[in-house]
Amino acid sequence: MESKNIMIVGVGGQGSLLASKLLGRLLLSQGYDVKVSEVHGMSQRGGSVVTYVRCGEAVHSPVIDKGEADIIVSFELLEAARWLEYLRPGGQIVTSTQQIDPMPVITGAAEYPTGLVDAMRNAGAKVDALGCLALAEKAGSSKAVNIVLMGRLSHCFDLPAAAWDAALEAVVPPKFLELNRRAFALGRDA
Questions:
Q1: Maximal CA-CA distance, the chain
Q2: Rounded CA separation 7/45 (Å)
Q3: How is residue 190 annotated by DSSP?
Q4: What number is the average pLDDT over the span 131-136?
Q5: What pLDDT is recorded for position 74?
Q6: What 3-state DSSP class applies to 178?
Q7: Helices (H), ranges, the chain
Q8: CATH number of the domain to which 11 belongs
Q9: Could you give the CA distance from residue 58 to residue 77 in angstroms, rounded to a whole number?
Q10: In degrees rounded to 5, what are phi and psi of residue 84?
């Protein structure tokens, strides 16, 4: 049973908690020992947040140290770059290309950095950057970026599609299930 360390990073209010619950539920259903951390950071809208999901034969701690993440899932481009030092050499980044200005950019004290995808690739990361916001809107809600990213992340696991769907069904309220299924499929198939 292969161990994996996954970091889910973004900005408060983007749905990282639901994404980590979905991933944790999925991995538990497939027989993995799973540890999921609480959200760390400013979980109110606008602050940087991170959750850890670790799985394997036996996992003793949810914490991922620098250089240990196999995968970073990022809801926002600058957040992917911010957490890059946690990625192991040759690790995978799955990121939305969405850009949300942090406070220094909003106040005019800094500019949003350019060339982030190239910089991450030049640092040795494999980067899968996708316009997740547009796909979420196509699915029916801009709030479904998290599930679009989970669809994209599904390529990093050799797990049956039915297991992903069962996990979605377990964590998403019934009235939003079909919208989230569309979002997942759009992310997976993009």
A1: 49
A2: 19
A3: -
A4: 98
A5: 97
A6: helix
A7: 16-29, 77-82, 103-106, 116-122, 132-139, 145-153, 161-171, 177-189
A8: 3.40.920.10
A9: 32
A10: -55, -35
**Structure token pair of residue 124:** 């040795």
CA separation for the pair 64, 112 (Å, rounded): 27
pLDDT, greater one: 46 or 2: 2
Among 28-32, 59-63, 68-72, 89-93, which stretch is predicted with the lowest mean pLDDT?
59-63
Concatenated DSSP letters for 79-122? HHHHTGGGEEEEEEEEEE------HHHHTTSS---S-HHHHHHH
190: Cβ contacts below 8 Å, ≥ 6 apart: 130, 135, 148, 151, 152
Q: What's the pTM value of the predicted model, to 2 decimals? A: 0.93
Mean pLDDT score of the chain: 93
Long-range interactions of 36-41: CB distance < 8 A, separation 24+: 36/62, 37/62, 37/63, 41/12
- 64-110 residue pLDDT tens: 999 999 999 999 999 999 999 999 999 999 999 999 888 889 999 99
User: If you search the block for the tokens 């949300």, which residue do you land on?
Assistant: 100
Task: Tokens 């994404």: give the residue.
Answer: 19
pLDDT for res 188: 97
**Is residue 71 within a helix (H) or strand (E), and if so which, with residue range?**
strand 69-74
The structural domain count of the chain equals: 1
